[in-house]
Write a structure and sequence with these properties.
4-stranded antiparallel sheet, 5% helix, mainly beta, 1 helix
Length: 132
């Protein structure tokens, strides 16, 4: 029910960059059918997140993007996405190709997760690929 804020400092080519992650709860519901100990069908409801990421060089904003799990539908199966939440995001570095993040998409109360590497280039284009 609250926004989680993370910030990281990464050095690249003798410049310190700050990467920010804001994990924002949304009103998007993810329903998980469960069976109680008494054998009754119960739907457990979770709320998905939308994550805002940005990178700064001092006060200059270099990139800014809202990320949701459906942006990853070309690499994560739809069946999994419909049961999962975008649970975490980490700023992992900077390269000549852009700003690097890693997202975690998981099914609540399950060990099933996908890790997705995200690269945002200097033109603010986003590329997703599964982490190995």
């Amino acid at each position: 029910n609250e926004v989680i804020k993370k910030d990281s400092v990464i050095q690249f080519n003798n410049t310190k960059y700050r990467g920010y992650v804001y994990i924002n709860p949304s009103t998007i519901k993810v329903t998980q059918p469960r069976v109680s100990e008494e054998g009754i069908n119960v739907d457990k409801v979770y709320f998905d997140n939308i994550i805002h990421i940005c990178v700064y060089d001092g006060k200059k904003k270099l990139c800014s993007k809202d990320i949701n799990k459906y942006m990853m539908d070309k690499i994560i199966p739809h069946e999994f996405l419909s049961k999962s939440i975008l649970s975490d995001m980490e700023f992992t570095g900077i390269g000549s190709d852009g700003y690097h993040y890693q997202a975690t998409v998981c099914i609540p109360n399950d060990a099933s997760c996908y890790k997705v590497n995200i690269v945002i280039d200097k033109e603010n284009n986003v590329k997703f690929e599964l982490a190995e």
